[in-house]
Amino acid sequence: MSIKVLKFGGSSLADAAQFQKVASIIHADPERRYVVPSAPGKRFSGDRKVTDMLYACYDAIQGGASFAESFADIRERYFDIIRELSLDFDFDALIPDLEKGFAEPDARDFAASRGEFLNGQLLAAYLGIPFVDAADVIFFRPDGRLDEERTYPAVAEIAKKYERAVIPGFYGRAADGRVRTFSRGGSDITGSIVARGVGADLYENWTDVSGFFTADPRIVTNPRVIETISFNELRELSYMGSVVLHEDAVFPVRTVGIPINIKNTNAPEDAGTIIVDASIAPVRAGRVTGIAGKRGFSIITIEKDMMNSEVGFTRRVLSVLEKHNISYEHLPTGIDTLGIVVRTELIEKISETLVKEIYEAAAPDTIEIVPNIALLAVVGRGMVRSKGIAARLLTAIAGADINIRMIDQGSSEMNIIVGVDEADFERAMRGIYVEFFIQ
User: Fold this and answer.
1) In angstroms, rounded to a whole number, what is the distance separating the alpha carbons of residues 119 and 190?
2) Are 220 and 159 in contact (CB under 8 A)?
3) What is the average per-residue pLDDT within 359-385?
4) d(CA 415, CA 141)
5) Maximum alpha-carbon separation in the chain
6) Taking CA atoms, which of 67, 140, 226, 369 is between 20 and 30 Å from 375?
7) What pLDDT shows up at residue 124?
């Protein structure tokens, strides 16, 4: 029998009604055998995600508040699910270990991970299948990276021991024995790790949308769903703001050729989006797969006559950023100019210091920091073999009466990134979408 691993996001498991939908999806296909749940998400607009509540609870307890009082609202969220599903589950038996863990210093990751841990316990009880603690099978190295040599054999043992199981997402065990989490949205990564570890034929990632869109549906009305996309294209779009799937979730399954299917818990009949290796992903007639973008950038623009002949100039400039632990996003250059695109939040409090230190390190003629920049990426595997993509992109932006502040094309020629003023961001995305997907 084939094996499918399913990951369900927070919106898919936000309340008892969603639990019932998830159970129906799992029971509809006997190949759906290993389930990775997230913590409960928002039930309605204005509601709070349980993970956010856990962070606040931990901070309150570390500040001297009582566990019982701080944890009360979280406990009630889970009790609502237990009552409505008529589950025979002793939630309060878990409280002593939770209280002990929350009281430990530097246990923020432990606290945050309990949303998935508790939801996993409830889902396993509701489905009537074993619960496997992720901390027992997913391990991190001392440098914080996944310990593949320990993790994948441990996950493989799950398939040998259990025909079906629930393994909570988002966390594992650090080298020092404590619980450690992935970055937010990391349950996607857990699902990918489990899929690889158990030798799955398909990794289904269930969320609240029917696949990966060609553009942000909050900006573009009814954008098309991408039926099939390559791992590389998806990573480019995810990094640039399309947040259906965590950008790092592709790595574990890509290396062994396991496809990912993005599916909608609330519309399980929809085909969703299949993510596959580039060797079998289609190259579209329009050559563009999707558009993504995000705000919150600044451009450090540096000018110096004869920059091109000054050996080590860029290295000296970047050494200043490295000193302050600042990474850059893009590095567009001219013969006498250098642009460094960085996240505004990383530099806004030290911008004057950076300017001073860059002057001291590299002696440029001028430095200007341009804030409030948004980046948009046009992504597609077929772009390298298609003439006129860049021209159409620039024409679309010019047609919307928008000034381009930066343009950068990746060396793989899979994407073209443009920078515009944040005030023009949404208008630019709509104009680009019309050019490549409507006309």
Assistant:
1) 15
2) no
3) 91
4) 33
5) 75
6) 226
7) 98
